[in-house]
Amino acid sequence: MTRNFVIITSFISFVAFSGLSGCEKQLDTGSICKNNPELCSDLHADSWCRYEKGDLIRKRYELKFTQSPSGKQLYEQLLNLEKYNKCIELAAGVKHILHPERSNDRVRAFGLSAQTLSQLQDTTKNSQDLYLAFYHWTRFNDIEAQKIVLAAYKNHQIDDILLLSRVASYYQKFDALQSNLIYLQVLDLSNKDNFNPDWLLGLSNNYQKLKDLELTYLLARANVLMTEQNVSEEKMLGLIYGDKPLQTYLDSQAEVLVDVIESGAFSSSDIKKMLQRTTVSQ
pTM of the prediction? Predict the structure, then answer.
């Protein structure tokens, strides 16, 4: 990836890495903006969207000292820009009665961030980088980008849990068995900090397509335990034809599954071996 490829904003100038001390890395956003005003001049000034703005500033600061940002770094910058733009768009619609200039400042920031986001999207289009291809596939349904991601999966080049889960979701539409195999890889990489309970529903739906209603129930129950969502217990029990002793057993297994996922111990667990055996035997 050449340096000219990376044009994140018109005001960010990439310079050679000069060495950041541990202390400098801990600078807060106020200090970053004071010492690097070009990183913040297009952003709004008040306290709206505090976290989104902070993440964006810190990522810009990191990239300022990176000669050749990786595709993953640019992908993260795209996500930060998206979050900031979405938040400031909502804030721009809130009129400040006593200080109307603050409302105008947020409107200005929204327009500039939308432009910056569009520029970076255009700059990264058609990239062969895995993360940037993933972005353009999932945001714009770019078929060529999709091919890059799927080819990387087939060549065993994906170990990112988010990317793998998206590939699993893709296969779910037409190959439940293949989707399950990928979801098991996702669970291998899971812990309580990076896990999305929706992945359990993906597995559950796949097993329902494969006519394994016990695992359909077990995985749906694990999702309920992790999300604390209200469900119809009558419908849940109906999945296993009203078999209450079986329900008791499956509920206990669902608790085990949640525990091993949250502890990051799924890859060596007995419940993984059970799911693998069942998937392979389909």
Answer: 0.83
